[in-house]
């Protein structure tokens, strides 16, 4: 059973008591098999790199500063009871579950991180302020939990790149580790927002990984990057219920790819009121 810690002071007392290094998985709850995989990988890290002498901490906090609309924040699924079951089953030693007033005692705020140019692109362009809110809460959580390593899913690839840059820029001695996306049998990336999809919408959403796979195949068959994007975009036009926000090719630092770079495709779409993102390496 995982220990539940609801305040910063409770966490600090627990941290002093264990007298061991900590590794973390930061979440907004509504946990699924993808989160469980992150926790399991963190547990393996402790076993393999720390000789088992370390603890896995999971945070559950729906961070208000990274939402663009009150409705999106209100509709975000909250499933704490089942979240705690998943944490315990996957091997979490402690779960940190602060309130918004605990995390933002002086009121909600964002630290100024607009100099992160890649944070203004892709998701940042469509969701202004989102990454400032995310990096604010990640900075706070890193300072509170004091991990030596932290684990992020590659599904939110832009987030992963930004957190790595943040840790480097602030000279934090923390290993930021990306974990491959966990997918359903049809290739659809697991996400907390998937709980809001109707059966019809879920069936439509399977076209997201199908599009990325088509793009990857087009490149392997010799199409240049521009024509591969065009092929994939044209394919998605067969499904008018799927509204494309962006479908772009970038290198693994999210810059424009050169002829020799590994290439990752990133996509964001809207199905009804639900925004879905995904990405895939399409050229090694």
Q: Descriptors for this entry?
A:
20% strand; alpha/beta; globular; Pantoate--beta-alanine Ligase, Chain: A,domain 2; 284 residues; single chain; Rossmann fold; six-stranded parallel beta sheet; three-stranded antiparallel beta sheet
The CATH topology of the largest domain is Rossmann fold
Determine the oligomeric state from the structure.
Answer: single chain
The counted number of beta strands is: 9
Strand order, main sheet: write it out: 1-4-3-2-5-6
- Whole-number mean pLDDT: 95
List the helices and strands and how they pair.
Layout: E1 3-5, H1 8-18, E2 22-27, H2 33-49, E3 55-60, H3 70-75, H4 80-90, E4 94-96, H5 100-103, H6 123-126, H7 130-145, E5 149-153, H8 157-169, E6 175-179, H9 199-205, H10 207-220, H11 225-236, E7 242-250, E8 263-271, E9 274-283
Parallel strand pairs: 1-4, 2-3, 2-5, 3-4, 5-6
Antiparallel strand pairs: 7-8, 8-9
Helix pairs in contact: 2-4, 7-8, 10-11
Structure at a glance:
With 284 residues, the protein is an alpha/beta fold. The protein has helices at residues 8-18, 33-49, 70-75, 80-90, 100-103, 123-126, 130-145, 157-169, 199-205, 207-220, 225-236; strands spanning 3-5, 22-27, 55-60, 94-96, 149-153, 175-179, 242-250, 263-271, 274-283.
